[in-house]
Amino acid sequence: MKKIKVGLLGCGAVGTSVYELIQKNQDKYYALLGAEIEVVKIVVHSLDKKRPSIPNQLLTLDPNEVLEDQDIDVVVEVMGGITDAKDYVLKALKNKKHVVTANKDLMAVYGQPIFELGDQEQKLVLFEASVAGALPVIGTIKNDLASNKINKVMGIINGTTNFILTKMFDEGLPLDLVLKEAQDLGYAEADPTADVEGLDAARKIAILASISFNTRVVLDDVYVEGISKIATDDIEYAKQFKSTIKLLGIAIVNDGKVEVRVHPTLIPLNHPLAKVDDVYNAIYLEGDAFGDLTFLGKGAGGFPTASAVVGDILTIGKNILNPVSKIKNCTCYLDLPIKTIKQVESHYYIRMIVADETGVLSKIASVFAENNVSIDSVIQKKLANKKAELVLLTDRVEEDNFMKAKVGIESLITVDSVTSILRSEKEN
Ligand SMILES: NC(=O)c1ccc[n+]([C@@H]2O[C@H](COP(=O)([O-])OP(=O)(O)OC[C@H]3O[C@@H](n4cnc5c(N)ncnc54)[C@H](OP(=O)(O)O)[C@@H]3O)[C@@H](O)[C@H]2O)c1
Hints:
Elements lengths: L2 E7 L3 H12 L1 H8 L2 E8 L15 E2 L3 H4 L6 E4 L5 H12 L3 E4 L2 H18 L3 E2 L11 H7 L5 E7 L2 H13 L3 H10 L8 H4 L2 H15 L9 E2 L7 H9 L2 E12 L2 E12 L11 E8 L3 E8 L3 H20 L23 E11 L4 H11 L4 E8 L4 E8 L2 E2 H12 L4 E10 L4
Parallel strand pairs: 1-2, 1-4, 2-3, 4-5, 5-6, 8-10, 10-17
Antiparallel strand pairs: 7-9, 7-11, 9-10, 11-12, 13-15, 13-16, 13-17, 14-15
Helix pairs in contact: 1-12, 4-5, 5-10, 7-8, 13-14
The site of NADP nicotinamide-adenine-dinucleotide phosphate has 24 residues, from helix 1.
């Protein structure tokens, strides 16, 4: 009886859960495949760590015990990082092994060469866990929704920042306090930069845009802004506009061009993504046949991520037992241009400190009008020392026009400073 032999690279939060899930649900996998899935080797950094659920004889420090073992069918890369992970994945493919990876950092930068080698060697490269953990979006977009042309992907794809923004909204706490709590709860890394500054979400939206629009989008193509400048005042004004603030990844195809960005976004409280709180992730898609679809669930954590990894192992297992005629990992058959952020259209939120005197608002409105920016709504709050805080929402406008207006506003002597600018989404 054929066994599907698996080598794991990494045995941390995800690797351990992958091993445990395979043991736990082996009966089901055997019934579905007609073959056992066996983890035969696990590569780690340290043999001294306590790993109560893992048999010691499976552990090794030598990656070649996985990469060069002729009996291993599937290499599962759950170690993270880029350089070693890329070398090991490429070596696994050269050595005729199928690959599963949970590594968004790797796929957002080196997806193309990895797919090309997989195609050349006729080995599958599956990466469902690399975006939004348990949410089954990658396989769904590549297979079940392949009949569609997808024109929009938008989502909350970073649990850490969603936890932080939810707490800031619900409890009125400042970002640094909530970040500390997120670190204490294990939701944020000791170095939270990748999450807070939007890089983690940028990698995921690059992957989602590539597979959704069938054109290569890499990390460098993504405009990225994190949440580190969001103040409690912005959250309070958002509430007054019956809105909330979420870190969104947004990718849109329009007129044959791709826009792809990550930034904090003001969204109305009745928007479907406004209700996605805490560490939950959600991904919204628009396609020409299915209309719209939303996926909601746990985007991280050992078992939710292992759910996606083991799903990929099962897909490969089926393929090993009943091979498809030709493997084509890369689905990017287009080469669409990427818009600059200046070309992107959005609604805008702008907060500024101004002189508390008559005519200030009309001067600001004139600068906006000169740049074809129209104002949707205004909140004004009196401050001490004859100052006022002015917060405006604009109608939809090209970023280039809005930023020219901002420069004009900053040059008005009645305007002290522009303290915050956010983009805003009104529709889904
Ligand atoms: N954690 C999540 O919720 C989650 C969700 C989605 C995707 N992912 C992705 O899944 C991957 C793994 O994440 P994780 O949270 O499981 O990471 P982790 O807990 O830090 O575990 C990494 C594992 O890889 C081993 N390792 C790291 N570098 C190695 C190297 N150069 N050679 C040999 N072994 C090495 C470590 O060995 P030691 O144990 O000996 O230190 C450890 O077992 C990452 O790409 C991550 O982005 C994670």
